[in-house]
Amino acid sequence: xxxxxxxxxxxxxxxxxxxxxxxxxxxxxxxxxxxxxxxxxxxxxxxxxxxxxxxxxxxxxxxxxxxxxxxxxxxxxxxxxxxxxxxxxxxxxxxxxxxxxxxxxxxxxxxxxxxxxxxxxxxxxxxxxxxxxxxxxxxxxxxxxxxxxxxxxxxxxxxxxxxxxxxxxxxxxxxxxxxxxxxxxxxxxxxxxxxxxxxxxxxxxxxxxxxxxxxxxxxxxxxxxxxxxxxxxxxxxxxxxxxxxxxxxxxxxxxxxxxxxxxxxxxxxxxxxxxxxxxxxxxxxxxxxxxxxxxxxxxxxxxxxxxxxxxxxxxxxxxxxxxxxxxxxxxxxxxxxxxxxxxxxxxxxxxxxxxxxxxxxxxxxxxxxxxxxxxxxxxxxxxxxxxxxxxxxxxxxxxxxxxxxxxxxxxxxxxxxxxxxxxxxxxxxxxxxx
Amino acid sequence: xxxxxxxxxxxxxxxxxxxxxxxxxxxxxxxxxxxxxxxxxxxxxxxxxxxxxxxxxxxxxxxxxxxxxxxxxxxxxxxxxxxxxxxxxxxxxxxxxxxxxxxxxxxxxxxxxxxxxxxxxxxxxxxxxxxxxxxxxxxxxxxxxxxxxxxxxxxxxxxxxxxxxxxxxxxxxxxxxxxxxxxxxxxxxxxxxxxxxxxxxxxxxxxxxxxxxxxxxxxxxxxxxxxxxxxxxxxxxxxxxxxxxxxxxxxxxxxxxxxxxxxxxxxxxxxxxxxxxxxxxxxxxxxxxxxxxxxxxxxxxxxxxxxxxxxxxxxxxxxxxxxxxxxxxxxxxxxxxxxxxxxxxxxxxxxxxxxxxxxxxxxxxxxxxxxxxxxxxxxxxxxxxxxxxxxxxxxxxxxxxxxxxxxxxxxxxxxxxxxxxxxxxxxxxxxxxxxxxxxxxxxxxxxxxxxxxxxxxxxxxxxxxxxxxxxxxxxxxxxxxxxxxxxxxxxxxxxxxxxxxxxxxxxxxxxxxxxxxxxxxxxxxxxxxxxxxxxxxxxxxxxxxxxxxxxxxxxxxxxxxxxxxxxxxxxx
Lengths: 434, 572
Hints:
The complex is a heterodimer. Chain A is α/β, with parallel strands linked by helices. In chain A, 23% of the residues lie in helices and 25% in strands. Chain A has three domains: 6-98 and 181-196 and 360-433, FAD/NAD(P)-binding domain, CATH 3.50.50.60; 99-179, Alpha-Beta Plaits; 200-356, FAD/NAD(P)-binding domain (3-Layer(bba) Sandwich). The radius of gyration of chain A is 23 Å and the shape is globular. Chain B folds into four domains: 2-151, Rossmann fold (3-Layer(aba) Sandwich), CATH 3.40.50; 162-268 and 420-486, 3-Layer(bba) Sandwich (FAD/NAD(P)-binding domain), CATH 3.50.50; 273-416, FAD/NAD(P)-binding domain; 496-556, Alpha-Beta Plaits (2-Layer Sandwich). Chain B has a seven-stranded mixed beta sheet. In chain B, strands 7-6-5-11-21 form a five-stranded parallel beta sheet, covered by helices on one side. The longest helix of chain B has 19 residues, at 127-145. Chains A and B meet through helix 1, helix 2, helix 7 and helix 9 of A and helix 9, helix 13 and helix 15 of B.
């Protein structure tokens, strides 16, 4: 029996969700596998997205709801694909559904179980800027709005204590501490890899002071600091001092030289940060230290122009790779070479580093499981036939979004729809050919 | 307005309204935070409505399997004319309870969900206040539901065929992705050949030249693609699933009528005219060329020569021509200028190539390596603040404000990619708006870049905005994906039912509504002096409803009467 009508999509970010909805709309059965307990991907971490600073949640929540309510999409959160065997039209896939310990059908997301949990841990989803419990949802507004228990740290599950507090607090009998991993095997005709990307490890650049100087921030940390559902409820305060920064430098191209590519989105999010800062702290001075402004496409430069000179002062450096950030009393000192090559100093309270997008931490493992090639940078490679095809080195396996390389939301969506279009094209060909 | 109220109050005057009110306890989430018995008792005693019978009940979890079965049985056995559910956010379970109604004889638009969880019990600690608010909300819901009307879905037959306008690389890719045994494609091209601008390109990626030739052959051989060369689109009327299109031959003015369910616009782009730039004093007769004319030299003759026939020994490549004037970066010029630098160096290894740029924009993941290679190969990169040319004399100011002049054998300009000349005319024809840059505007920049506000019309390739060959083809396949999903041969489309209607007697034909309708769903019937809504196109956004000075418009399921009565009752 042909399995062409079934499709596996890995990753429930904007690319994976859009691809799934398109395939499901044409009556294909979609298995959407997401390693996190929630869907939505990176976009929902941003309160507002460029270029028009639209509310990301308002943009993505309806898509998340459509995915969760679509009868043709089986969304498997907190799950990992372990094996993809077979060939185009007939893949066998093994999926491990990790024990969540909370029933997706019985839990209504009332949140009564968080308070009693005695464990306190850093919330990774919130960039470790706030604590969470062992039973938790990554952020308010999570979808599905059902918590998960971190079995490594839950006192009962790691065998440290006979704690049963969350179970007792649940009025719906939705928590089952005897839950276990479930392994399922499915048959699909095609696969789309949309597992996203990660950000450059900034601690590998000692000149920029990340992880040694508390006033230096990674971009996603700043996004969460600005977010009204984030750790500070949207108040921009410095870590440790809890002061409101009065001067901020955004340093571009962190990791561009090391990665050997331009990530194409950092300039735009840096300008967005300037707008955010001036919006919340009108008295703040904001500087963007840059060497090239990369604002490709019809809508981006006008946003840059609207920010330049009003929300931020643009400081050109002849050598972006040699910018230094150092301690300066309670604040920070940024040293860079200006247009004439002479060294200039700038004192600020806060530094945000515009870090490159890099392959996801699990990209190599995923590529091995999916049996596809990576490119020289570690992203999942496409066939490179010059047509922009989203097919990988393995027939029937496609890639979309930032799993393929750095890109913005628009291009991630285009790749997702393009990959889904290619899958449907194959399905039609297979069906009419058989 | 009286007429409306009467129509809304009940469809059948002979039938006494019987409203079922069901409150979900949601475990302790609702039941624990309000006095449900008091709410039920108070609602049961409401004597606001003559001839209306109220039945008020509570249930543990209405959204559960047994809860839905219970509700279904209650609707059947009690013969309700209307249903109100006091529960959670409509985002959670509106569709759940509409689904329950659909299993019974009760029209799902005679039901209303009232959010007493997120709006009351989750946000109010004081039980008494929460109880009061939940009661008021439900009373408002009862008042509203009594004024709701039955609405019916009207499935429409669709035509799966597609019109593709433009035979360049994007149009061809869309046509090939869509054509099949059960779907014909009409591919309309205004020139006498396929391939578009890509025919002149000297190959951005290895093998791209072959791809274009292969695509042209595939399109020509595809029996499900009907090709119209030397043809333009004259008129378009209709909506997703059913467009009627008139094509006209540019050669002999003969017309052809076709029907299609969707339209893909792949009309490409044009180049900024360097003559419009104040700095450049560009003249065709000098040894100054646009990048495209140099592309043509390399793709045609395989080499670039001066007008004198000699090969240049020095070339200036000037980036960003028109970027300032158009206020956008075309995103591909840096990359192709480095490609041209490579061609020049292959042609004459000793050639001096200087690239004058403002910002290096290298958004594709291979672009930066191309730059590193070019630099290593001896191409000089000069970042400038300002530049002007007079013939082949280049005057420029570097970032450190040093001004210099330099003379070259040849100057090559990278003009911005701009909308093609007939964009505005076509936009009018298709009722698709243009964006600030003059390209076709997508319905949503991020989540739907190929869709337009005219459902069924899609924009791909550089008609959408500046982009390279691979991206153009991706856009084309994305549009194909959307069409394959939405126009399935043999299946019907269900248009929005909560659309706007016009009460002709009240319409003065002022035309306000035409101006605010972003979907092109309203047209003017000049013979009767009124506006008319095409319900198949309307999405029920309500823009026109707010703009009507005479109260002639109303959006079904969101009428003023319904909204005001709900608010009045909730606040009473």
